[in-house]
Amino acid sequence: MWGILRAPSDLRIRLACQAARDARWPSTGADLVLLPARTGRRHDWRVQLATWLPDGEKLKPPPLWFVSNGAKTVGPVTTTLLVESARRGLSRQFYVRDYRMPRWRTLAELREVRAVDESAFERKKRIEGMAGLLSCEALLRLSDGTDETLRLALRVLKERLGADVGFVHRFERGRYTPVTRHALGGDTETRIGCPILPTDVLAHVARRGRLAIGDVHTHHAFRIAASRLGGRAGEVVSVAMLPLTTRAGVVAMIELGRMDHSFRTGDARALRAVAGVATSRLS
Question: Rounded to an integer, what distance in angstroms lies between the CA atom of residue 48 and that of residue 89?
Fold first, then answer.
């Protein structure tokens, strides 16, 4: 029964050590906003985004999983090994648990395993979605005008990161607080035109040119953002905020919310990549 999942003990140790190394995240104590980068003989202006995190918090590393058939438990194993075992026939009725979390769930509930089990119709729908994302990314690279760039950047990030809801809040001339100008998902459009409170923590973080990622239980800044994104308490469980900055200062902040799982370290890289494209068009 367990032959599909079993790996040599030294392999499990190597996997765990590799996960521990991957979990390390560069310190973000310094404020990195605008730095010149040398490109050939010329200096090229680029945005360097550091990550703001609440004191003592770290971005979540990739998960390691315990697997149980109800009588025996093995692990921890990486997501890659777990998905490969699912491909080779591991029962979807087995239970899995992230080693950091107390809740067990069936293997079939894991989104990575659902991707393995998707039907032909679901696969076609996913491929169509990927084609739509590529189209949006191409349009973003060719966008002309601030509003168009911000709207496309929001759409690209929502699709690429699998976010459920998202906002663009613009920092406009003559206003101290940003105003919501674009929205995607749920009933978020009802907030368009509303300003953010002057005391909002994430708005201050955006002014410093730093992105922020966190679950709602880690800091009140994320709980306030979640209330904007989801309306009802408990609807949004994780928040990501990306500032878009030019030479003149911060132009806008994009907020994204997920309702079923947390943003992770790889998502920060995607946020920075889209920020680089969007700011080049805003500049």
Answer: 45
Specify the pLDDT at position 1. 46
Pair 213, 51: CB distance under 8 Å? yes
Chain segment 7-44, per-residue pLDDT in tens: 434 434 343 444 444 333 333 333 222 223 333 434 34
- Report pTM: 0.60
Contact 98, 56 (CB under 8 A): no
Helix H or strand E encompassing 229? helix 220-230
| Digit-coded pLDDT (tens) for 258-278 | 988 888 877 888 899 888 888
Q: How many Å apart are CA 256 and CA 254, to the nearest integer?
A: 7
User: How far is 16 from 23, CA to CA, in rounded Å?
Assistant: 10
Sign of CA dihedral 36, 171, 162, 138: negative
Q: For residue 197, what is the DSSP state?
A: P
Q: How far apart are CA 249 and CA 83, in angstroms?
A: 44
Helix, strand, coil percentages in the chain from 3-state DSSP, rounded to 5 = 40, 25, 35
User: What domains does the chain contain, in order, with CATH numbers?
Assistant: 9-25+61-117 (3.30.1490), 121-282 (3.30.450.40)
* CB within 8 Å of 126: residues ≥ 6 apart: 118
At 69, list the tokens.
């058939």
How many CB atoms neighbour CB 154 within 10 A? 28
